[in-house]
Amino acid sequence: MGIEPGIMAGAEPYSAKGGRHGALVIHGFTGCPQSMRPLGKAFADAGFTVEVPRLPGHGTTPEDMNRTGWGAWTAAADAAYRDLAARADSVVVAGLSMGGSLTLWLAQQHPEIKGIVLINPAVKADDFGPFAEGAKATLAAGERFLPAIAGDIADPSSKELGYDKTPAQCLLSLLDGVKANEAGLSRIKSPALILHSQQDHVIPPGSVELLRARLGGTVEYATLDKSFHVATLDYDAPEIHRRAVAFGKLVSG
Fold first, then answer.
1. Catalytic residue among 21, 58, 196, 229
2. Which stretches does DSSP call E strand in 78-200?
3. 200 assigned to active site
4. For 112-129, what is each residue's pLDDT tens digit?
């Protein structure tokens, strides 16, 4: 199968047909499925039916992303979940960074989700004040883009396929969505696995602290000691695969 026109090579969505347990795996802000494909394949190797969708505006160009926002990303995540749920008896959802934020949004909309895996998720909007101020100042100056935030990886041999600049309006839209998510955290009863990099240069630690305090279901927490923000492509990737798959099997029954 060829590359879809306009999609960066390597940014294509990933699907795998497996058994009756499903895993939806969601990438992060300005990234693409490339960062989550290894985790998706780990679920597939364990027998799950897997979807790793490409969110609107991602894996193409920053200018394309600039025409999207939180509403488009939640709609795409919801459509991917509904499609997978129609083909599986149960679904777990895993997300990195903004993908974790979308996972939390899905868990509020779909309490039947069997479990959620949150890898360095964006959760506490107030901790992102400097990001928000920078985005607002950029827009006020008549500019549209901030420096890149993709690629925070400790392993020098690994690289995230992400944008070289960040759409300021999209960042503000994301933070609005993160803020809206906060009010419903206690209503999330799905079991959660939180995987947290101790050296994350993108997400402040308050996000994970808030999650552990507010989530309404059981919470399993583990630190990732060797990786930066994009831990799914970093030194701890094998540990992420092991823990996420074991958790997925446990909660799926």
1. 229
2. 90-96, 115-119, 145-147, 165-167, 192-197
3. yes
4. 999 999 999 999 999 988
